[in-house]
Write a structure and sequence with these properties.
about 20% helix, about 180 residues, Jelly Rolls
């Protein structure tokens, strides 16, 4: 009786092992959805110089199908009229040049959802003001109220935005008759 049970158990183990091995052999690593990006230091410097004439950003990577946006952003003497909270994305700033004043944490006053998961409000109540300068790295997790001011300052950063879900495709414009 014992031998019979042992044979059945060993047989079941062999069947399960072969099933697991078959599944692991079928599974393959993901394929890249877009080409990788290497931006040499000189190219980053060139982009910085191009942006310094205005308050604007230039994307390095991002778009439909990606959970990531990487951009170089320049701001001079500006302050958004609203603070913001993102429900489904994290922001990472790396300061390339200059300085900015961030207000982080606290509570967004009178929040209004301007698009799904993107909230704006006139100010942050109870946040902490932080001065950031060249070389600083800032991580703003989703759900964190934040506001950036560059009043009387010149500021350039790399912005890395990590989205919870891939960005949807851009809607195609209807064909013109």
């Amino acid at each position: 009786m014992f031998l019979r049970r042992l044979v059945i158990v060993v047989g079941m183990v062999l069947v399960l092992t072969s099933a697991v091995l078959a599944q692991s052999e079928q599974r393959q690593p993901a394929k890249p959805i877009k080409p990788y990006v290497v931006t040499p230091a000189q190219s980053v410097t060139d982009i910085q110089k191009q942006l310094q004439s205005a308050n604007k950003a230039q994307d390095i990577m991002g778009g439909p199908g990606l959970e990531l946006r990487v951009a170089i952003q320049h701001e001079k003497n500006s302050s958004s009229p609203t603070a913001e909270v993102h429900d489904a994305s994290d922001d990472v700033y790396y300061v390339l040049e200059g300085s900015a004043t961030l207000t982080l944490g606290g509570t967004l006053e009178s929040p209004k959802e301007i698009e799904q998961g993107e909230w704006r409000g006139p100010k942050i109540i109870g946040g902490e003001k932080v001065e950031i300068t060249k070389g600083d790295l800032v991580v703003v997790p989703r759900g964190t109220p934040h506001h950036r001011s560059t009043l009387n300052k010149d500021f350039t950063m790399i912005l890395i935005k990590v989205f919870e879900d891939p960005r949807p495709p851009v809607p195609k414009e209807p064909a013109k008759p």
